[in-house]
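FORM 7B - TANDEM STRUCTURE REPORT

SECTION 1: FIRST PROTEIN
SEQUENCE AND TOKENS:
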Amino acid sequence: MSTNKILSVNNLSTQFVLPDGTLKAVDGVSFDVHQGQTVGIIGESGCGKSVTAQSIMRIVPKPGHISAGSIEFTKSDRHTTDLVGLEKDGKTIRSIRGGKISMIFQEPLTSLSPVHTVGDQIMEMILLHNTKDKHEAKDIAIDMLDRVGMSNPQLRFDELPHQLSGGMRQRAMIAMALSCKPSMLIADEPTTALDVTVQAQIIELLQDLKEQLGMAIMYITHDLGVICEIADVVHVMYLGKIVESASTKELFHNPLHPYTQRLLASIPKLGASGKGTKLDAIRGNVPVPLNLPPQCGFQSRCNEIIENVCDLKVPGLVDMGNEHYVRCFLHSEEQEKTYA
């Protein structure tokens, strides 16, 4: 893996100002992405994963806005640009969005136009960022459809999205996202709607294309099995914050945050009998991040809560060594001094 840093997210906060108050969807998130690296972002629905991706792409829907922090993107010429400082629909961000940083979504039918052929939509991306020659753009589009494993790419080029299966539509979306050879791909739950066999094919495809193109991937999912297979580094998000970060091997062998531990415990065990076997689910739900009190966001669902600490203060991020970080009073120096 290269040591070249492509993206550096620093203290990013994204809020939605609503009639009932301010909803903090992303609350002080920081992480880096390096060339050739796959960074996993995991957590339940409502934890801020997708809004983090939308913030990087500068496509946060209204009334949301980035309220603090920076998103520093380094281009191939080593010039660094803070994406937060750019106009949301300006020329510079539009040249980066799709051309340098691309994104694929969970359901391609919501992103692909139903009235335009797959080929025309891929060509549009290429003509916008790569070349003005339509013949060259068509050749690139067909080649990319072939590279993502689309059978008979010349035929698929002229078909509409509804004529393709779910797996083929996702491959078409990947072909469009990678047609301009971006430095980084953001994959937001790209295989959730697919069956297990097609899911495995798409994951293998992304890994192969990452090696071929030398790009980085930011992979967002709630599926720990997928993350274990594809990611180099994992950031666990809960209620808009990163609560634990580590290499994939370290996180799965030594989870420190109670939330991470509960997520891992909820994975169905291989060989466990189906009848009469209950999944070890996390009780309760992710709270709505609206007008939250100053306390640990997970304390209402935690089995290891420290009274008068977790319910009264917000824990900071603790460096546990070996590039392993955790946001929990169980591991903080303050907690150790108070309860030694």
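SECTION 2: SECOND PROTEIN
SEQUENCE AND TOKENS:
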Amino acid sequence: MKCLYVSDLDGTLLRSEECLSEYTCGVINELTKKGMIFSYATARSLVTAKKVTAGLRARIPLIVYNGAFIRDNVTEEILVADYFGQEILHVLDELFRNGIFPIVYAYVDKKEKFSVIQEKCTRGERVFLDSRRGDIRTNIVSAPEELKRGDIFYITCIDEPQKLEPFYVKYRDTFHCVYQRDIYTKEQWLEIMPKAASKANAVMRLKGLLGCDKVIVFGDGKNDIDMFEIADECYAVKNAHEELKEKATAVIESNDDDGVAKWLARHLFL
């Protein structure tokens, strides 16, 4: 059977220092050279994902922004995309009225941008901006109305739980929402995406694009649950969220112990 292997990045394939080990790169590169069909599904953009996976030579489409886009790893062409409709403008207005000014991802004048009002940034949003210094997608704006420009596909709110949780509860059935603490900064995030934009949907689309018969996935976070639910086999790393472990076929070694690469090497006979 033709199998597609898909791994989450942060907390799963990446070590805690946000990097790939030499061992993991070596195993995946060797196995893909022998024919393994491997991709990753991440909440990161293609820009930041490529930075932390620079040692990988896999040349198949990649799932980014938690499934909002599938992009060609070589040409960077967008193969599949999900955008919000006009309804998201009302959500943004409601966020603004409640003192929440998110980071808004959109194509503005045909260029990928993330827009933010710097003067209204929370501590977590300032940390985010500091980590993206020099990123050509950065679009600093001065007014809430400017956050509504372009074809919007992803919204990230970083704020106090008591401010964000009511919006998660309100919109989780209307949109694809991820409500969890960032594994690095421990800040509370609420990410809002179009309903069709999920790792699960993107994996199934990629499975069809590549003509695969079976899917095996690896993950660590609650945003990997939907991907686990559609996979033929699913493996949680030892450091994974307990809720994800309950849905896993098995628990493997942790991200810092190269759990995914060791599983691949063992089962694909490297």
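SECTION 3: OBSERVATIONS ON SECOND PROTEIN
The radius of gyration is 18 Å.
The mean pLDDT is 96.

SECTION 4: SIGNATURE
Preparer initials: ____
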